[in-house]
Design goal:
- By secondary structure, the protein is an alpha+beta fold.
- It is built from four helices and five strands; from the N terminus they run αββαβαββα.
- Strand 4 and strand 5 form a beta hairpin.
- The radius of gyration is 14 Å and the shape is globular.
- The chain binds tetrahydrodeoxyuridine.
- The site of tetrahydrodeoxyuridine (THU) has 13 residues, from helix 2.
- It is an enzyme of class 3 (hydrolase).
- Pfam families: dCMP_cyt_deam_1.
- Its EC number is 3.5.4.5.
- It catalyses: 2'-deoxycytidine + H2O + H(+) = 2'-deoxyuridine + NH4(+); cytidine + H2O + H(+) = uridine + NH4(+).
Length: 138
């Protein structure tokens, strides 16, 4: 079953409802679509230290790794077909630079954010991080 960009944004919006964001009051949700058709969601998790806050995209990436069913060796890397991001207090809500780097680790192809009236806007990942340092850089 394929997941549309609008459906992926809906998953991200639902995940944002679980955000733990008492300091910023800025709930964010992310939904990753993997090449096996699976979807994984995450939300931001803030901390009283502020600096230990984890963004929604990175909690989703952590779940993607932790909840893998089949791992074919240490080097087995999931492939993110698309990452949808929703901020409940602002749209569009684009991933921060740190999240670009983490999404890029898993060959993310596209980022989807909400445009005017919630219409999905798809951005080619290479336009976001054109000279990425990634697994092939080592
Ligand atoms: N945030 C995310 O969850 N993802 C991003 O890519 C940008 C920022 C969160 C972190 C923090 O909890 C709140 O938004 C305000 O910066």
């Amino acid at each position: 079953m394929t997941v549309s960009d609008a459906e992926l944004l809906d998953l991200a919006r639902t995940a944002a409802g679980n955000a733990y964001a008492p300091y910023s009051g800025f709930p964010v949700g992310a939904a990753l679509l993997l090449d096996d058709g699976r979807t994984v969601t995450g939300c931001n998790v803030e901390n009283a230290s502020y600096g230990l806050t984890v963004c929604a995209e990175r909690t989703a990436a952590g779940r993607m790794i932790a909840e893998r069913e089949e791992v074919d060796g240490d080097g087995c890397r999931p492939h993110i077909v698309a990452a949808a991001v929703v901020g409940l207090k602002a749209s569009p809500c684009h991933p921060c630079g740190a999240c670009h780097q983490v999404l890029g680790e898993f060959s993310c192809e596209r980022v989807i954010v909400e445009g005017p009236s919630g219409v999905p806007v798809s951005i080619d990942f290479r336009d976001l991080l054109p000279h990425a340092f990634g697994p092939d850089s080592l």
